[in-house]
Specification:
By secondary structure, the chain is α/β, with parallel strands linked by helices. The protein is 40% helix and 21% strand. The chain has a six-stranded parallel sheet. A six-stranded mixed sheet has the order 25-29-28-27-24-26. Strands 17-16-15-19 form a four-stranded mixed sheet, covered by helices on one side. It binds zinc ion. Zinc ion is lined by residues 274, 276, 278-279, 302, 305.
């Protein structure tokens, strides 16, 4: 099995998952195929929806003599006529629904192996939401034991070890950690169907996050039994890679249509609110009049079109860097889901999500409502403002939200203030919270769109952050001439260079406290763009140390800048340490692959600039991280750092 990250946003990722029967792009959906009764054949699914991977039930195959013998003879791929990757389920869910069914946990794994399943599943113990913690504990103990036994029988098959633990996050986490110790390559999160059926989305989020926190990040995660697109964006943002859908068929049989915002009964619809190939060629009254079998087929097709379309949208949102927006918009369509988003505000969850959050994105940040201010990237900014931002002056003059960048919008007023005194901080009480003008071109301040009027909750949140940032200092709210008159002239009229303040502030926010001392400790020359007047390149003692990117107002680190930071910051700050064997490749400018990474600064985030060093902490190159620390240390495939410049 090969699994590597190609792109990312939130804790979601686009990966290539390779099995013996081909490569699948994740996040992806496996339609459930009932070998006894296929509404749509897997072959047709591939043609119609581009289905890349499917799931079928080994318990159902094994139970039926004819199917069992045929599967053992020709293999599961020929049995259901699909040449792509096939996952098999073990019968866990059947034992949950129908009570005790006679199944030997090891036999069913052997059977899946023998019929040539690409991904076989252990027979885990389904943890129901209503069970006691003691019972849930016993359940995960047995599940882990069975996983340990099953691993010896898997052969070449990928073994899916399902995380259980009912609604108890600590048990979920424990189970995930125990299973990660086993040489397993695939982790479903099980026991969540009753949570989704009862719209208990807060519990669902808690279960996913607790499991993810305990799992090895380099392995695919499958939200078992999740087949409704309503929760796809959120589940992907939390790090789920696979879904499976029996919903398309089940809902079709019940005359129900799946939509990204929920489910509608065909009988209630006068018009089909959809443009899929089915809904474009038929009207609602015509669809209602079809024979039962035909109607089910058309509804099932519509359900799959919609489900696969939503996954395309999600993958596209990851590539564009606006997955959180999609999550928030989708959550707005269901009050239970909307409410459950509060689970993400818990500090532990924010901290965990922040680790996967990229440093900057391709697209501007859009406000969608009261959940936006709690996004990990904004949480990071507020945290860094307190921990990394260095105050230059004791007095802040505060302006309200304005057009961006703020220093252009308020340039006239700032000029008037600076003519009187130059030693004041200009602070914007923005819709993000406090933004010193030095940071106003850095992502996401300049690259964000908020409405003029905010919701009350966001207002309260930012005023809390503003108060925290400005306590213990003198703040003056800008009132035009009145403020200017009140402003006393300083005793020593020192002229501060606003450009130097700007590059210092950005460097500290981006590379850590004191980075400006390391980078600008000599004769600093700033080169600006002739066209835009914006800072482009920075030289220190004639050495080119940094470039400022026009797209996100952050620095690209040059090798001479890297040397300064390396000298100033002690190990492991900003470092990615690589194995001896990889050094010569990196020196030739090749990128760093995860399997060569020995260690990494825990503060580095995806798309951060980093110092590539050898085991003796000798600086070898400078590059841009694609993964965070825990990912670099666990992935066996794919790139960890894109090398930019190396010391030859
Ligand atoms: Zn449709």
């Amino acid at each position: 099995m090969k699994f590597e990250i190609k792109n990312r946003d939130a804790a979601g990722r686009i990966c290539k998952f390779t099995t013996e029967h081909g490569t699948v792009t994740t996040p992806n959906l496996m339609p459930v195929i009932n070998p006894n009764k296929m509404i749509i054949s897997p072959r047709e699914m591939k043609n119609l929806f581009g289905t890349e991977i499917i799931i079928t039930n080994s318990y159902i195959i094994k139970k039926n003599k004819k199917l069992r013998e045929k599967a053992l003879e020709i293999g599961v791929h020929k049995l259901i006529d699909f040449d792509g990757p096939i996952m098999t389920d073990s019968g866990t869910f059947q034992s949950y629904v129908y009570g005790d069914i006679k199944l030997d946990p090891i036999e069913i794994v052997k059977f899946q192996r023998d019929i040539g399943s690409d991904i076989g599943t252990i027979l885990d113990i389904f943890g129901t939401p209503q069970q006691t913690k003691t019972k849930a504990k016993l359940g995960i103990k047995e599940t882990v034991k069975r996983a340990q036994q099953s691993i010896h029988e898997k052969g070449d098959m990928i073994l899916a070890c399902t995380v259980q633990g009912s609604i108890y996050p600590d048990l979920r986490n424990k189970c995930a950690k125990e299973l990660s110790k086993i040489d397993s390559d695939f982790f479903p999160i099980g026991g969540v169907v009753p949570l989704m059926e009862n719209q208990r989305y807060s519990d669902l989020i808690a279960c996913i996050l607790a499991s993810k926190k305990g799992l090895n990040p380099s392995k695919p995660v499958h939200l078992f039994g999740a087949g409704h697109p309503l929760i796809f964006p959120l589940a992907v943002a939390l790090g789920c890679d696979f879904f499976d859908s029996s919903a398309y068929a089940k809902y079709a049989k019940g005359g129900r249509m799946i939509f990204p915002w929920g489910t509608e009964k065909l009988d209630d619809l006068d018009e089909l609110p959809c443009c899929c190939p089915i809904c474009t060629k038929i009207t609602a009254p015509e669809l209602k009049k079809l024979k039962e079998d035909e109607k089910i087929l058309e509804l099932a097709k519509h359900n799959l079109y919609v489900s696969f379309a939503e996954l395309k949208k999600i993958r596209s949102a990851i590539a564009e860097g606006n997955l959180w927006e999609l999550v928030e918009r989708r959550a707005s369509s269901n009050p239970y889901l909307f409410e459950s988003m509060r689970e993400l505000r818990k500090i532990d969850n924010k901290r965990w999500l922040e680790q996967s959050e990229s440093i900057s994105k391709n697209k501007a940040l859009f406000y969608t409502g009261n959940h936006t201010i709690h996004r990990p990237i904004i949480y990071r900014y507020h945290k860094r403002l307190i921990e990394r931002y260095e105050r230059f002056f004791d007095i802040s003059i505060v302006f309200p939200e304005g057009n961006k960048p703020y220093s252009n919008y308020y340039s006239e007023q700032i000029g008037e203030i600076n003519r009187k005194r130059n030693d004041v901080e200009i602070l914007i009480n923005s819709h993000f919270g406090p933004v010193p003008t030095e940071l106003d071109e850095m992502y996401p301040f300049s690259q964000s769109v908020f409405p003029k009027t905010l919701d009350k909750e966001t207002e309260e949140e930012i005023s809390k952050i503003f108060d925290n940032f400005t306590r213990d200092r003198e703040i003056i709210f800008w009132e035009g001439n009145r403020t200017l008159q009140k402003l006393s002239e300083p005793q020593d009229k020192i002229k501060y260079d606003r450009d130097i303040l700007r590059i210092s502030a950005v460097a500290n926010m981006q590379f850590g406290k004191d980075a400006s001392k390391a980078l600008f400790d000599g004769e600093t020359k700033i080169i600006k763009s002739k066209k835009t007047g914006k800072i482009r390149n920075i030289y220190c003692d004639e050495k080119h140390t940094l470039s400022m990117r026009a797209s996100d107002g952050m620095f690209t680190l040059k090798i001479d800048g890297a040397k300064f930071l390396h000298q100033h910051f002690k190990y492991p700050r900003l470092r990615v340490t690589i194995e001896k064997d990889a050094v010569s490749f990196i020196k030739q400018g090749k990128s760093v692959f995860s399997k060569f990474v020995l260690d990494c600064d825990p503060e580095l985030r995806p798309f951060d600039e980093c110092l590539i060093v050898d085991e003796k902490d000798e600086l070898i190159a400078v590059g841009r991280c694609l993964l965070n620390r825990s990912e670099m240390l666990s992935f066996n495939y794919g790139m960890a750092v894109k090398t930019r410049d190396s010391i030859v």
